[in-house]
Amino acid sequence: MSLNELDVRRMLCPMPVIRTQEKVEQLQVGDTLTVLCSDPGAIHDIPAWCRVNGHQVLDIRQKDEEISIRLRVCEE
Amino acid sequence: MSEARKAVALISGGLDSLLAAKVVQQQGIHVEGINFYTGFCVEGHTHAIRKKDQAKPKRNNALWVAEQLGIKLHIIDIIEEYKDVVINPKHGYGANLNPCLDCKVFMVHKARQWIESKGFDFIITGEVIGQRPMSQRKETMPVVARESGAADLLLRPLCAKNLALTKPELEGWVDRDGLYGFEGRSRKPQMALAASFGFEDYAQPAGGCCFLTDRQYSHKLADLWTARGERRYELDDIMLLKVGRHIRPCPNFKMIIGREDGENKFLHGYRKQYTHMLATSHNGPLVLIDGEPSQDDLDLAAQITARFSQGRDADKVDIEVHTLDGARQSLQVRPMAGELIPRDWYL
């Protein structure tokens, strides 16, 4: 189980979601991924994408304009 | 018992694709959604940029639709491949630079490739005959099916009864009696069907979901192509066309002027890729210069920049200019009077 990071700051939705989806496709079940983003829309979109595709959001942190979303890859 | 047949639905986030997927899902078909990102989608972007819009609740409508249906959604980046659709549309443009028919053919073609690679059986779209003047007419329905390569694997559940039988119907995967015969621009049948499914909070698109249907946006894109002497674009180009006030004083350069804090912040992210300027003696916008301005051009741009600063009524405004070679110069200019900026400079 590996820890991974994806930096999509400055990208506007839906690009953070698309890049998250592409990264998750390369990971194994149980791996975690931390997505760093700056588009406030990602706070809604990435968790929504996780819900419809069966992955688990572990936590969401926001400091100033930077957002960090940590998720666990689950069996689809 | 045989395995359920599988279909992929093109999900735009609007009502029609929601209903089309639901109708087929109700017949026991396993449905997943696919949503294509072209770079021109209205969804989200400008709301994320403009500060005044940031308080509004945001949601990606395609993801929302997938949640309502309880289906997976695959969002696919087609930005690069889509350029050829925009630049060389075989069927031409609509009222603006919207290549709607070519766009539909391209997306169904991509869906056709997707079902082949994923082992799915057919494709669903929310098209309705007569709903859109260019791409959703009785004559264009077979064109989309034929040119996309989807042929009879393309099912339009909302108007299937007005079209020839498709393979999912012929094979008995879906029951034609459970499909619909909607036609025309009225939204009432869709709204009634939505109510019967208990859908209430669906997206109400105003003016379509693509910037290419917007007259002013298309004008700016056409201007970009004219100024560059060729029809090409990068993602950054088409993003910047959505932001700020665009003024072209001369053929060789244009100014992109932030209209508020959110836009200034967004433009700030491009400061290393563009010559840019801002007022230092007064509050004012960040201005990107796209093109190859001479020193006289920079002086003129500085006067216009001063016009859009809070020093617009001052005798002099200090402007700092940062050129692409990393040099910085300070100019002191008289703001240009608003009435001296010709209307046709505004894009």
Summarize the structure in short:
The complex is a heterodimer of chains A (76) and B (347). Chain A has 76 residues and is an alpha+beta fold.
**Which structural category fits the helices and strands of chain A?**
alpha+beta
- Biggest sheet: strand arrangement of chain B: 6-7-9-8-10-11
Question: Compute the gyration radius of chain B: what is it?
Answer: 24 Å
Proportion of helical residues of chain A: 25-40%
Task: Provide the helix percentage of chain B.
Answer: 25-40%
Helices of chain A, by number, come to 2
Oligomer: heterodimer
Structural class of chain B: alpha/beta
The Cα radius of gyration of chain A reads 11 Å
Uncertain residue ranges of chain A: none
In total, the number of strands of chain B is 11
Mean pLDDT of chain B: 91
List the chains of the largest interface with their residue counts. Answer: A-B, 20 and 28 residues
The CATH superfamily of chain A appears as TusA-like domain
- What number of domains of chain A? 1
CATH level 1 name of the largest domain in chain B? Alpha Beta
Shape designation of chain B: elongated
CATH fold naming of chain A:
Translation Initiation Factor IF3
The overall number of domains of chain B is 2
From the N-terminal CA to the C-terminal CA of chain B, the straight-line distance is 62 Å
